[in-house]
Amino acid sequence: MKVGGQAIIEGVLMMGKNVAIAVRDNKGAIVIEEISRKTPSGSKLFKVPFVRGLVSLYYSLYYGIFALDRSAEISSGQKMKKSETVASLLFAVVLAVGLFLVLPVFLTNMLKFLKGNEFVFSIVEGLIRLGLFLLYVYIISLFKDVRRIFQYHGAEHMVIHAYEANEELTIENIRKFSTIHPRCGTSFAMIFLIVSIIVFSLLGSVVSLGILWKVISRIILIPIVIGLSYEFLRISAKGSRLMSILTAPGLILQKLTTALPDDSQIEVAVSALKKAVSEENTTDQKKDGEGPEFFG
């Protein structure tokens, strides 16, 4: 069974046969909850190339947002207001669009020597977008709370590695594995940024657009870039040497977005995984090779 997950506040979300979270509450106990009794892995859309990337990302975000809210409630012992969730989500969307789509276009447009060369303009714009993303990740990594999430991120990867290797999920066994995982959302983000440079540059070589239409075209082409990026991620997760160059930056970046967890954090990740796979025998799983590639 393919599994994936996300780090949340003081816990981990796991997606397997079920969708489950495990979070440490403010008293130190592990709270385990099932978010959904089944994942959408049976959907035919997961078998359609390029479309399955959008579907997988949608469900990852859908469950991820819910899990973040629930983990905040469990870890703090306080109920979250729906208005706070909506406000946070809107802020995140506006920040992402403004910082990583709109700002790079305007910054590049300030470089007068690029006027008239749409192909080079798109490449420079993409590099600025990439630089802003790396700077953003570095800055948030300096915050103590974010570092703890990165530790849970590392725990999630290590537990998934152990599960996929048919190892018994003990602390000792899990410690043998890396915090880096090829199917990670961080790798997907880096692939997305690289593919976007290619796609927008090709567009620039075909048609010349004003600054407003440049911004609009970036937003419109997001689904295409997501679809392409996901297919590259699937191929790279299967060990393709051809894709190693494309995926290498994402694996390197994971050294920043993951951190070595302590035993208590690994314990939380194990609890979430066991719930997500219905506590089936985790030392002798049948890998059927079917279903979606959940983000690790």
Low-confidence stretches: 281-292
Q: Into which percentage range does the β-strand content fall?
A: 5-15%
Helical content (DSSP H or I, runs of 4+): 55-70%
> How many individual helices?
10
Distance between the termini: 13 Å
Structural class: alpha+beta
Strand order of the largest sheet: 1-2-3-4
Total of domains: 1
Shape type: globular
Instruction: Sketch the major β-sheet.
Output: 4 strands, antiparallel
Radius of gyration, CA atoms, in whole angstroms = 20 Å
What's the count of strands?
4
Descriptive account of the structure:
The chain is an alpha+beta fold. A four-stranded antiparallel sheet has the order 1-2-3-4. α3 packs antiparallel against α6 and α6 packs across α8. The chain is globular and about 60 Å long.
What does this entry show, briefly?
By secondary structure, the chain is an alpha+beta fold. It contains 10 helices and 4 strands, in the order E-E-E-E-H-H-H-H-H-H-H-H-H-H.
List the helices and strands and how they pair.
Layout: E1 4-8, E2 11-15, E3 19-24, E4 30-36, H1 51-76, H2 82-109, H3 118-141, H4 144-164, H5 171-174, H6 185-206, H7 211-220, H8 222-237, H9 244-257, H10 263-276
Antiparallel strand pairs: 1-2, 2-3, 3-4
Helix pairs in contact: 1-8, 2-3, 2-7, 3-6, 4-10, 6-8, 6-9
